C-alpha cells in the first residue's frame, strides 16, 4: 500500500530513517532549495529517488499542509514486541515501553510518539483495532519521530503479559481512581510499561486491571484533568528522569 508523507520534517525524517520504500519525491515549483528542502533533495539524490516538480495546487490536493514537499512511499513498517525487547537489550537499558489503550486522535498520538522518541522509549504498543494507526497525519504530528520509533500492533492484554514476563512493571496513568498514587511514591527507574488511556474514557477496565499499579499526576489548578497527550508526555518525562538517576 502506498501513501503520501507530507511536510518538511515528516519527509526529511522518513528519508533519514530509511525504513520505507520510496517511489518519488514531489517538490513545489519555484520553492527555494535551501535549509531542510536542500537536505531532502540531497538524500533523494543519494538514494536515486525520482524528483518531480509539481504545481502547488497539485500538492494541495494531497494535503493543504504540505509545506512544498510530499513523498510517495510504502505503508508504515510496524514492528513486533521482540524487536522492542531486543532494542532495550542492545542498549543495555531497562525496558521502557509506552502502551496506548484505544487512543483516537492522530494529533495526540503523534505528540506522544514524539515525546516517547525524545526520552528513549524502546517501543510503542497500540491495539489492533478501534484505535488510531500510524497514518501520514500521525507522522506529521510526530514531526517525523514515528519513522524512528518501533511501533507494535498487538492485543494489549497479551502484550502486557509478555512485558511482565520480560520483567517490566506495568504502570497505568489514571488520575480518577482511588488507588492511584502520585509519582513521588512510585519506583519508575526499572523496566516500565507505561499505559495511557483514550482521550475521553481513559483505560478500559480490562487494561486497568492488568496494571501492577496506577499513577496520578498531582494538580493544584482549577482544571481537573490534562488531555491524553499532555498527561502521557509528563508521565514519560517523569519516568525518564527517574531512569537517569539510577
Tell me what you see in this structure.
The protein is an alpha/beta fold and 246 residues long. It has nine helices and ten strands. 37% of the residues lie in helices and 19% in strands.
Name of the top-level CATH class of the largest domain: Alpha Beta
Please tell me how large the radius of gyration is: 19 Å
Figure out the total of helices: 9
> Could you give the count of β-strands?
10
Amino- and carboxy-terminal Cα gap: 44 Å
> What is the percentage of strand-forming residues?
15-25%
Helix content: 25-40%
CATH-defined superfamily of the largest domain: SPOUT methyltransferase, trefoil knot domain
CATH architecture of the largest domain: 3-Layer(aba) Sandwich
Q: What kind of sheet is the major sheet?
A: 6 strands, parallel
The spatial strand order of the largest sheet comes to: 7-6-5-9-8-10
Shape: elongated
| Count of distinct structural domains | 2
Stretches with pLDDT under 50, minimum 5 residues? none
Amino acid at each position: 500500500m502506498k501513501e503520501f508523507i507530507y511536510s518538511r520534517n515528516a519527509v526529511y525524517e522518513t528519508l533519514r530513517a530509511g525504513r520505507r520504500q520510496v517511489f518519488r519525491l514531489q517538490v513545489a515549483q519555484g520553492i527555494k532549495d535551501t535549509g531542510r528542502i536542500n537536505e531532502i533533495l540531497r538524500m533523494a539524490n543519494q538514494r536515486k529517488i525520482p524528483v518531480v516538480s509539481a504545481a502547488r495546487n497539485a500538492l494541495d490536493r494531497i494535503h493543504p499542509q504540505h509545506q512544498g514537499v510530499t513523498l510517495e512511499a510504502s505503508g508504515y513498517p510496524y514492528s513486533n514486541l521482540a524487536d522492542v525487547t531486543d532494542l532495550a537489550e542492545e542498549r543495555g537499558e531497562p525496558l521502557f515501553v509506552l502502551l496506548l489503550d484505544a487512543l483516537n486522535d492522530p494529533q495526540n498520538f503523534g505528540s506522544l510518539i514524539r515525546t516517547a522518541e525524545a526520552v528513549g522509549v524502546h517501543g510503542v504498543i497500540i491495539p489492533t483495532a478501534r484505535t488510531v494507526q500510524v497514518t501520514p497525519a500521525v507522522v506529521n504530528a510526530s514531526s517525523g519521530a514515528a519513522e524512528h520509533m518501533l511501533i507494535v500492533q498487538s492485543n494489549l492484554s497479551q502484550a502486557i503479559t509478555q512485558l511482565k514476563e520480560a520483567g517490566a512493571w506495568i504502570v497505568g496513568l489514571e488520575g480518577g481512581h482511588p488507588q492511584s498514587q502520585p509519582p513521588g511514591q512510585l519506583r519508575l527507574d526499572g523496566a516500565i510499561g507505561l499505559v495511557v488511556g483514550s482521550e475521553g474514557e481513559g483505560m478500559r477496565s480490562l487494561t486497568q486491571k492488568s496494571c501492577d499499579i496506577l499513577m496520578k499526576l498531582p494538580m493544584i489548578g482549577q482544571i481537573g484533568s490534562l488531555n491524553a497527550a499532555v498527561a502521557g508526555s509528563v508521565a514519560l518525562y517523569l519516568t525518564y528522569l527517574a531512569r537517569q538517576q539510577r
